[in-house]
Amino acid sequence: EAPPLGMVPGNGEVLRAVASGQISYLNTAATKGDVVYSLRSNSGDTLNVTMPCDCKVLPGKIAEGATVLAGDPVVEAVSGNVSPVVEATMSPDLAKMLINGSLAELHFSDGRVVYAKPADAPDAFRPTDREHEVSVRLVPEGPIADEALGTPVSIRVVNATAMKLKNRVTRLINQIPGQV
Hints:
14 strands, 4-stranded antiparallel sheet, 2 helices, mainly beta
């Protein structure tokens, strides 16, 4: 079985196309008050959308020159005080392991590994429309780089007891003289 994939959503404010047309300008370095994108509408008007906050811009799947419909997401504005979560869909068996204390091992594309636990919220585990799948919200135990926001992550569920044993063996090995 392939490992589940998750997504690190930005949890920010999604700026949507205000009309149907074509994106003529996109500024992912925009700060509060700057034009973050311009849209040449089907009526011929150019509409400028300004950045509503001093926050980071996560580009969406839209690039300059893209055709959009009114309401399509263009970019996401994320403030620095948002705690990242990982949203994943997995089998009920893996979800049960997490409920019973196992950890999720998050593998990022840059090679970093961060451990996560289920969110402490009523909606941490939700059924999906598909049979044999559960939607899970995970909270990373370590920091996640800003670059990871909006990106996919590979997930491996690790038995908590095995993880504790591995950590203990590693500590013991590191106590042996001459070990680095």
